[in-house]
Amino acid sequence: MTDAAAAPTTSERPDDRTASVLRFATELVAWVATPWALAAHSWLPAAASVVVLIGLPTLFSTPGDKAHVIVAVPGWGTILLVLLQLAAAVISSWLAWPAWAAVPVTVLAAATVVTERRRWTWLLSRDHRADRGGCSP
After folding, report:
1. pLDDT of 61-75, one tens digit each?
2. pTM of the full predicted structure?
3. Contacts (Cβ under 8 Å, ≥6 apart) of 129
4. Spatial separation of the C-alpha atoms in residues 64 and 115, rounded to whole Å
5. Do the Cβ atoms of 113 and 68 come closer than 8 Å?
6. Which residues of 13-22 are buried (b: 16+ CB within 10 A; e: fewer)?
7. Which of 51, 62, 99, 130 has the largest CB neighbor count within 10 A?
8. Distance between CA 75 and CA 91 in Å, rounded?
């Protein structure tokens, strides 16, 4: 017989303080670099990019991942939103800034992916556990 208290549970969100800091730093870069890269073409897509990059993660989230959920999405939806932020940060930094600025952004995004793995595993496990408060597709 195994001790249930000692076994890790998939219902508890993993401690991801380091991942959260790296994720937030990457989001900040995306919020700055994307409009910067798009402003050279037109102010309208630049402004829309800020609304999308800040608005979508604010509006859509997975229950249990954030304290307040406006529109519940399954874990894979939250992961896709993070990947959108990471891609926006990396691509936009390379388009808008010199290599000496874009390289650290790329390293930051890579570090974010590595540190997010535990949270992403947890988010995906929530999809299959509707009885524990997760979203089922």
Report:
1. 888 888 888 999 999
2. 0.81
3. 10, 11
4. 19
5. no
6. eeebeebeeb
7. 62
8. 24
Residues 6 or more apart whose CB falls under 8 angstroms from that of 22 comprise 108, 111, 112, 115
Task: Report how far residue 59's alpha carbon sits from residue 40's, in angstroms, rounded to the nearest whole number.
Answer: 28
Residue from 121, 130, 111, 86 nearest 14 by CA? 121
Asked if residues 62 and 78 have their Cβ atoms less than 8 Å apart, the reply is yes
The per-residue pLDDT for 64 is: 84
> CA-to-CA distance for 49 and 37, rounded, in angstroms?
10
pLDDT tens string 120-136: 999 998 564 443 444 54
* Contact between residue 133 and residue 11 where contact means Cβ atoms under 8 Å apart: yes
Strand residue runs (E) in 15-58: none
d(CA 63, CA 24) in angstroms, rounded, equals 19
